[in-house]
Amino acid sequence: MRTPLVALAAALTLSACGVPPSDVIEAGEPASGVLVPGPTPSVVVSLYFLDDGEPTAYPRRIDDPADLGTVVGRLFDGPTAVEAETATTELPRLTDAPKVTAGSGNGVTVGLPDDAAPLSRPAMLQLACTVAQASGAFTALPADAQRDGAFTAPPVGAQRPPAHTNVRVYGGGWTMTQSADACPAPPQP
Length: 189
Hints:
Helix content is 22%, strand content 21%. It has helices spanning 2-15, 68-77, 121-138; strands at 43-51, 54-62, 99-102, 107-111, 166-171, 174-179.
């Protein structure tokens, strides 16, 4: 019984479904235009920490600046050792990552873990200023829509000004809102 099965398998393999053997067929140029995915370029984003109690921009290289949650997470991580020479923060260390949602218009919602206490005004300003700068730097305005509906990065002069951003923060049983109107002007490159 075993020999006929082996013979049948060999016959099917050798028949190759009726495709006759052939040499290499020249068909023109090799395929081109396929892009190999590379690393996402990092971008410098302003994170706002406190310098003498005032929100101050500290440039920070972010690998995924298009993700506002990454930017907010870095802000809650606090200043680096070098930044801490002049910077402080009133934002708490979090037990879980904040949940960041960009709403329609200029609103951003940040959800904190239930055990997080309500934020102080300076902490809210740190958050509002950082979100306003990050969302303004990476969000195309509707005027930049292409015919197919895709957005392109707007020129710097056309980016949304940070003063139009409102941040709503909530935790276990509390909600706060802060406008970016009181934020200092962003640093000029």
